[in-house]
Amino acid sequence: MSSAENPVSRDDFDRYMVPNYAPVDFIPVRGQGSRVIDQSGRELIDFAGGIAVNSLGHAHPLLVQALTEQAGKLWHVSNVFTNEPALRLAKKLVEATFAERVFFANSGAEANEAAFKLARRFAAERFGADKYEIIAASESFHGRTLFTVNVGGQPKYSDGFGPKIAGIRHVPFNDIAALKEAISAKTCAVVLEPVQGEGGVLPAQRDYLQAARELCDQHQALLVFDEVQSGMGRCGELFAYMHYGVTPDILTSAKSLGAGFPIGAMLTKAEIAGHLKVGTHGTTYGGNPLACAVALKTLDIINTPEVLSGIKAKHQQFKARLQQMAEQYRIFSEIRGMGLLIGAQLTADWKGRARDLVKAAAEDGLMLLQAGPDVLRFTPSLIIPDADIDEGLARLEKTLSRQD
């Protein structure tokens, strides 16, 4: 039965779906590059990028080719067996980073779940059962599983699901003194996002991450960087830790890694990885050939001087225009972020209106995000054409000009 014979509408979401999302009124049906077509045939410019996922836009021909070629060979064999795309991808990630070992999952939450479990097991086996505390940052976000949502520092996401997981502490982001006071011999890991995404697009200060590294070394704790949103070129380097010059013990990646195809990865050193022995952790779909074939091609495209330098240039293009709008419309108090992970902080007069602006921008043909109630978030394709940036920002300006 074709889609024409079985039409669906936005109303069907409210009729059939669990109401944990509140999608906008239109339904995208096709995309090409940084342009998206909805059911009515209307064209929109995509500054949302599937929440920092569509790193190479929509329907990139080389990704379509990689997916379809692998689909004709092998889809799934489980981790009872290994497969060639997973091995090739793991090898390239190791060659491109600090890591020596890789674990593949299906999402950022799963990658973080693996990282947190590994950190606790490593500490328990090396130092004893009392070394299990995890320190994370307030307003952080690490996923929606019960473990990861508790490590995340936003009670609005973790409240209401029964007793909290014990041994998790939260400290203010970018506060060295608070981190120093919280860390102890019981700490097994400090978990940080180099750039807080959901928390408002807040980059870490270099001295803060350096202090975190030093404190972890002093207390024999692991430093875990959640680069689910900041990694894979999003911040202008392959991973944001490279920008800061601070190397973690464990790094997690997802979102842009598969450019839209679900995949997550945990990267670490061999000595640490050895504590996840056979049977201690696993996944049915993680590392499947389809996901790894797409991610391998994505990595090949992004990890080039041309693309990474282009991301930095596009950041400046966004920032200059957004600052002009800030001055003209008195709507943004700060433009911040790195690469193509950009946040525009709303002024006090616009407090709480980020979602309203996202909906209004959609009416003007622009797909946009928020990062909390007071920040507009821009996470477009890493190779978005300059002309699409200009046109998208012109549509945003139209949105701003008609607000009261």
From TrEMBL:
Ligase in keyword set: no
Superkingdom as given in the UniProt entry: Bacteria
Gene Ontology MF terms in the entry: identical protein binding; N2-acetyl-L-ornithine:2-oxoglutarate 5-aminotransferase activity; pyridoxal phosphate binding
Enzyme class: transferase
Localization, UniProt: Cytoplasm
Modified residues (N6-(pyridoxal phosphate)lysine): K255
Family, per entry: Belongs to the class-III pyridoxal-phosphate-dependent aminotransferase family. ArgD subfamily.
Subunit details: Homodimer.
Protein name: Acetylornithine aminotransferase
Natural source organism: Ventosimonas gracilis
Encoding gene, per UniProt annotation: argD
